[in-house]
Amino acid sequence: MISNFEQVHNYYERLVFEEVLRRASKRPDLMPDALADVACVALNRLPARYVRHDVDLMFYLTEQERQAIELSLEAALDYAFRLVSERSSHGKPYASAEKKAA
């Protein structure tokens, strides 16, 4: 049996990447490499939700679940930008703080 797993992805990845890029325009203090760090920190704070098609997930969610996703996404991104900014301004890599917090 042959299966095609190329469609399988973490639902949050695209949302996080798009939002990091959107917010980056308001954060000229962050170097471009730091944006990937922000995305990693945010994704590590969110649950894994693997799907084949994003619409499949959204179709079956209640309005409360959609709102919870939006709030958790917002909180994870706020935390990630704050952590990476603080670490960058002190010349420290973000990874050391993430490992200690985990």
Note the topology.
Layout: E1 9-10, H1 11-24, H2 32-45, E2 50-51, H3 54-60, H4 63-89, H5 95-101
Antiparallel strand pairs: 1-2
Short descriptors:
two-stranded antiparallel sheet; 68% helix; disordered C terminus; 102 residues; 5 helices; mainly alpha
Order of helices and strands: EHHEHHH
Major sheet: arrangement of strands: 1-2
Strand percentage lies at: under 5%
- Largest sheet geometry: 2 strands, antiparallel
**Helix share bin:** 55-70%
Low-confidence stretches: 96-102
Number of helices: 5
Number of strands: 2
> How many structural domains in the coordinates?
1
Query: What gap, in angstroms, lies between the N and C termini?
Result: 39 Å
How would you sum up the global shape? globular
Assembly annotation? single chain
Overall residue-averaged pLDDT value? 86
Overall radius of gyration: 15 Å
Content-based structural category: mainly alpha
Structure description:
Helix 1 runs antiparallel to helix 2 and helix 2 (32-45) packs across helix 4. This protein has helices at 11-24, 32-45, 54-60, 63-89, 95-101, and strands at 9-10, 50-51. The chain is mainly α and 102 residues long. It has a two-stranded antiparallel sheet. Mean pLDDT is 86; it is low at 96-102. 68% of the residues lie in helices and 4% in strands. The protein has one domain (9-101).
Short recap of the structure:
The protein is mainly α. The protein is built from five helices and two strands.
